[in-house]
Write a structure and sequence with these properties.
Layout (H helix, E strand, L loop, with lengths): L1 E6 L3 E5 L6 E2 L6 H7 L11 H4 L8 E7 L3 H4 L3 E6 L2 E2 L2 E5 L2 E6 L6 E4 L9 E7 L2 H12 L31 E3 L2 E3 L4 E2 L3 E7 L1 E13 L3 E12 L3 E9 L2 E9 L2 E12 L15 E9 L2 E10 L4 E4 L2 E2 L2 E2 L2 E4 L2 E3 L1 E6 L11 H13 L4 E4 L8 H10 L2 E5 L11 H18 L5 E5 L4 H5 L16 H26 L4 E3 L24 E2 L2 H4 L15 E3 L8 H4 L13 H5 L6 H12 L6 H25 L6 E4 L22 H9 L3 E7 L4 E8 L5 E11 L4 E11 L3 E9 H5 L7 E9 L2 E8 L14 E5 L7 E6 L3 E8 L4 E2 L4 E3 L5 E7 L8 E2 L5 E4 L8 H5 L1
Helix pairs in contact: 5-6, 7-9, 14-15
Length: 853
Amino acid sequence: MGQMTQALSNWKFKACKDEEWLKATVPGCVHTDLLRNGVIADPFYATNEHDLQWIDKIDWEYQSFFDIPASLYSSTKLELVFDGLDTYADVFVNGKHVLSADNMFRTWKVDVKAIATEKNNQLSIRFRSPVQEDLPKIDKLGYNLPATNDQSELGGLGEQKISIFARKAPYHYGWDWGPRFVTSGIWRDARLEGWSDSKINDVYVQKDNVTAAEASLTITVEVEAEQNWAGTIKLSTQGHAWEQEVDLKQGLNKVQVPAVIKEPQLWWSRGLGDAHRYTFTAELLREDKVIADKSVRTGLRSIRLVRDKDAAGASFYFELNGVPVFAKGANHIPNDSFITDVTEERYRHEIVTAVESNMNMLRVWGGGIYEQSIFYELCDEYGILVWQDFMFACSMYPGDDAFLLNVRLEAEENVKRLRNHPSIALWCGNNEIDSAWAQYDETGGWGWKKNYTAEQREKIWADYEAVFHDILPDTVSAFAPGTDYWPSSPLISLSGDINQHAHPLSSEGDIHYWGVWHAVEPFENYNKKVGRFMSEYGFQSFPEYETVMTFAVEQDLELDSKVMRAHQKNGDGNRLIKEYMDIYMSEPKDFPSFLYMSQVLQAEAMKMAIEAHRRKMPFCMGTLYWQMNDCWPVASWAGMDYYGKWKAMQYYAKKSFADTMLSFDRTDDGSIQVYVVTDVLTPLAGDLRVTLYDFNGSVLKQETVQAMLQGNSAAVMFTLNEQEWLEGLDAGSVVLYAELTAGGQKVDSKAFYFVHAKELKLTESSVRITEVAGSAGTKFTLETDVLAKQVWLTAEGEGLFSDNYFDLIPGVSKTVEFRFRVSGEAISKPAAAGKVQARSMIDFLANRKAAIG
């Protein structure tokens, strides 16, 4: 009776053409197994990536021998289940072919009761080379489909872009921040499942209508039965219970039970309330005996994407439990090129970083994977909303029947798998394809269309519509009713004409703004190009010196070295960082200084963007920068590097995402406005003090005003005339400082400079660090004699400071806390920092005398 499982272990693997078997780890992949066996060198080191492209050209085999315990073997149904096979695989049990897989994103299962024996079963899986499998498909199609980020040349395939044929993580084929490692392997759990009589496959808690007064639910229980019988389904959660009599038929049964919970505890996103979760347990009973059971965890909440016409165009925001939420966060990519190397601890580090950076949303971007369950569980736990892409990005895809069916089954399974997670706010069809192809704008898009005949173009677009306008929205509405679907990011609306495709000035839909970076537009354009929801924008930097030294040696430390170029996947990346640095910053004195400067440059760019978006609320109601994380050590747009180290930008994002924030805006008419922006739902009353200091800390001018603000809004609290305040002063020698206090507590503070960093008259400063008495080496107060820009603190201990890369004004002291999160802990806690060192911008300049001016 009931259900039993047995994990399959003791794996070995080899290239099909070889004789010798090597030990394998499952879940895993060929690359990580080769590395563990010492066959290949570290794929991330130096230019090793280039030497490992042979791995994806050959076939590989995995094998395991197993016995089956009598209790499991006696089950009437005995299924072999793979939660993930990457990607083209043939499975044999005791020499008999039982299964062929062709989609990394699907679960594969087969009943092996008739083939398996109690002792010494042989399981063998042959993975066909994804390269050899898919190359012939180009000839069959007759042309290459566009796939901009497929690094086919690096893979030795010239112009042949094969990534679009495989239902496999697109970034495996390379991206403009990631290497090309086209993996094969058993990447999720493999097991035997036995059951007799009946089992519960799925429990879905559909939120029909959720308010603070009442949650009205439909709970769907999917039961598989061996024969017809009558019984009872009992559902329970937190002191509530419901029962329903059922007549089960042989095969699959769907039982729907209506349920109401009065005054439910709602699930809220971070900053708005508790992310409360309920565990619902379903039990299948025959005469009071439990035949099968299953529990799921979910949160009770209502969420919708609001796109209402207004005077400016149309809104684009998420409403959670009736409250408009300003989305603050980033785009998430897979945390590793080798997904199975990502531990639960690494996932928690990422989500805690999001929480401690005051975020409330992450976008799971469409070029990676439908994330592991732990990712969504952590988002549920911490109140992080998820914008979930389907796995399609920056490419056009084939539209043959087999491909479309494969996509339909993949979508159905993943929507069903994730639909109970309260964190899922939206399903989005793809990343950037609508705007890249630009069907209704002959000269628009990325220039893809010009490579095809009229007939080919018609077919390619029809295939696109089949997936993104038919299959995917149908799947979402069928399996997660009430959940919003957005066809492509970015998009204005599904209008079927030129007004469909997003552009940086659209006043509807979402926007990916890349004028800063790719088009070398000035940072200041972040203030002008603000849409209703900014779902992508970004600026690159290098990781810190310690991270660079994990893949390089001293002689590699120059921008144009072979190794540095190998760890910069955006063709123009290094040139762009340098070009922008020349515009805004002074010259760094050496390569480690260049790394520091690149981080400060990125941080300043992202601060300007985030704050411009937040000042424009409620016109703009979302800002998700590109990107949260890295999949290997690399120069990229990430705010946190591969090893989880916070770059300068992460500290800046934490401040710019603060629930209540001050922000400066310089207008075209020569005035400077001080905004207060708050996501807190209650009104704010406090004092705003604005002070003009010189770099020695002398107060040149000061004004204090009352700050009154409605909850969940942004408003100008103070305006000053730049010319008047600067009269007779050197603009490069003064700083404007605003401080907001409420109820005697400091809420936020912000500094503003009238000129670019390279025009500031910086001088040598002496930063004093004093340990706060009684803090046991966890808190420090910093003071300076002259202005210190972007003070970078480092500690002996392991952990992060509560703030870093901040400016110190003489007379305005700053206290920081050193924190560390123990593995598995929910939050970081004060920790002893050991010896603390402070450096600032002046220490990294090539010509300190010039700066001293």
